Amino acid sequence: MYEPPHQPPGPYQPPPPPPSGPMPGPPLPGPHHGRQGGNRRGWIIAGACVLILLVLGGIGSALSNGDDDPAAASTPQSSATARASSTPREAWEVIPTRRRAAFLSYLRRLDPGLTPTSAGAKARPLRRAVDVCYDVYAGKPLPTVLANTARRFDGGQASVPQGSAKARRILAAAKRWICSSRELRAHYNKLHP
Fold first, then answer.
1. At 120, is the pLDDT very low, low, confident or very high (cuts 50, 70, 90)?
2. Stretch 23-43: mean pLDDT, rounded?
3. What is the pTM (predicted TM-score) of this model?
4. Which of 22, 21, 4 is closest to 13 using CA atoms?
């Protein structure tokens, strides 16, 4: 068989095999025998993971309100404690459930993007509507209230342009179901005597 003479490797030829034996030159720094020293690195990583879990557990227990404590659940509550636990934490919670449901149903029909479905965002349109009502209660001019309504409800998965019919419909719905709530008005009056 014919063998061509030795040529330097070109773009289409494989490189020659590496020489056998130790590499020429001084030895490189670092571990010389496989994963020597890797055991220490593994312990450091494991320790860091445990530390992160402890920190997250501490944050979680600090944020929880103690409802998971079986001893607390078995003790009877006084009437003052029961009233305090039923006190709403946010302004939208004072609005009767039927009004909230009607408002959210209207927004969902108007534009599904106005009513997010994730657990943390479900109350967002109610918070925004309460802010709109606070503008109305404060006696701000209608163009300002309308502009603020569009600004508050615009974004995310919904578009509410300034001065649009959608902004006017949202404002009308907020006035009908949220702002007309006696409970919200009383809550506002407590905050703004």
1. confident
2. 62
3. 0.55
4. 4
The amino acid at residue 68 is: D
Positive or negative, the CA dihedral 47, 53, 54, 55 is: positive
Query: How far, in Å, are 73, 85, 130, 148, 177 from residue 188 at the CA level?
Result: 34, 21, 10, 18, 16
Residue with tokens 């919200």: 184
In the chain, % of residues over pLDDT 70: 63
Of residues 182 and 81, more confidence is placed in 182
Whole-angstrom distance, CA of residue 77 vs CA of residue 81? 6
Q: Supply the pLDDT for residue 121.
A: 83
Q: Do the beta carbons of residue 92 and residue 126 sit within 8 Å?
A: yes
CB-based contacts of 183, cutoff 8 Å, min separation 6: 94, 95, 96
Residue 181's region, left for phi above 0, alpha for psi from -120 to 50, else beta, is beta
184 within 8 A of 133, measured Cβ to Cβ? yes
